[in-house]
Amino acid sequence: MKIVIVGCGRTGAFLAGLLAAADHDVTVVDLDRSAFTHLAKDFKGTTLLGSGMDLDVLRQAGVDKADAFITLTQGDNRNLMSAQIGKQIFGVKQVIAKVNDPIRANTYRKHGITTFSRTTILGTLLDAMLKNDPEVGEILVKRARAHEARMADAL
Amino acid sequence: MYFVIAGGGEVGFHLAKALLEAGHEIMLIESDRRRAQYIEEQLGSVVLNAPADEGRFQLEAGCQRADAMIAVTGEDPVNLIICQLAKWKCNVPRVIARVNDPKNEIVFKALGIDETISSTRVLMSVIEQELPSSGFIPLMPLTGSHLELIEAEIGPDTPSAGKSVRSLGLPRGTAVGGIVRKGSVLHADDDEVLEVGDRLVILAPTKDESEVRKALSG
User: Fold this and answer.
1) Buried-most residue among A129, B18, B74, B136 (CB within 10 A)?
2) What is the value of ipTM here, to two decimals?
3) Which residue of A has its CA nearest to B107?
4) CA-CA distance, A142 to A60, in Å (whole number)?
5) CB–CB contact B107 A104 (8 Å)
């Protein structure tokens, strides 16, 4: 798969690393050169300096040929604008935007953009852990911890 | 009319002031507390101190009964989201967004925001009108139609002098409304041969502006 990620913060870099290690063709876009230091040293994908809302930058990143487009900057509005460009202008099939405001996440999901809110996902997970709910999140936590252990070992 | 203005920077503040002076009702949404306070001191109780990109504050500002939402913050993605929420959540019949990067005009249109104002573009058209030598002047967009009114002068060094209107090769969907020759108006018949100094008034789809320019100036 060809995947373009906008935003190379901790989450963007982590996801890019997972996907590149699984032999996907990954391009990460960020406005700030220093953000790419979040990537692991053995990152096999491509990095591109520029705005994830700029049509020329996105075209250069190959969004027009991408199978998936994921926006993970710190700004909800920026993520939503980028994601809509990916979906409406470049016609990417799978578009996902990180939107921390749960209300906006809900509104845009109804308008065809897959969104997820760290606020509600993390909150729901912590709530379940505190209540010893065995169903919510057990697999998720296990897998996340395995990634953490692997990353710590790699250092 | 009732206008909700999002963003109380210089643009938003002066727009609010002008609309109030023209007898309209307004509400200005500004997220910075001190700026909101300042505007309230200047204009009265017409300010809501809140982020305009959250639906609940748009509702609090009375967007449900607004005739238009005008988003004029300094950030394009914020203006886009404000306008989309106003349309979807509050059914505001008319939304207008300021675009700071002129490239975003196309993006906003593709994402359903038809009316955009780019200060760069406005300034450019003023400058172009001041420069007679350029010969090609986009006069104004026609609201809600994707069409643009263009004035073009046939210069001595352009290939269109001596050609008929038909053979200019203007893109489809373009109409020459009239020709101004030596101060009087001529019908723009297809066979009319253009002379140096003629001024054409053209109606063209905004997206074809550069093609029209090319057809006239080579």
Assistant:
1) B136
2) 0.91
3) A85
4) 37
5) no
